[in-house]
Write a structure and sequence with these properties.
The protein is mostly helical. It is built from 1 helix and no strands. The chain is rod-shaped.
């Protein structure tokens, strides 16, 4: 019997499964980076506001 067709189909399924796992990992990593950048921006804004409040005491 000819097994080349079965081997090709198995490789296609294996490659498709690997692609699904890679795409899910990229999606999760993208969400992680988005959340992390939001926290960094929020922290920077808070620090800037605190510095402005500290400077305000010099102008009273």
């Amino acid at each position: 019997m000819d097994d080349s067709g079965q081997t090709s189909a198995e490789f296609i399924l294996l490659f498709g499964g690997i692609m699904v796992v890679v795409l899910l990992a990229i999606y999760m990593y993208n969400n992680y980076l988005s959340d992390l950048s939001g926290e960094i921006s929020s922290r920077e804004v808070n620090e800037f506001n605190n510095e402005l409040s500290n400077l305000k005491s010099y102008f009273k």
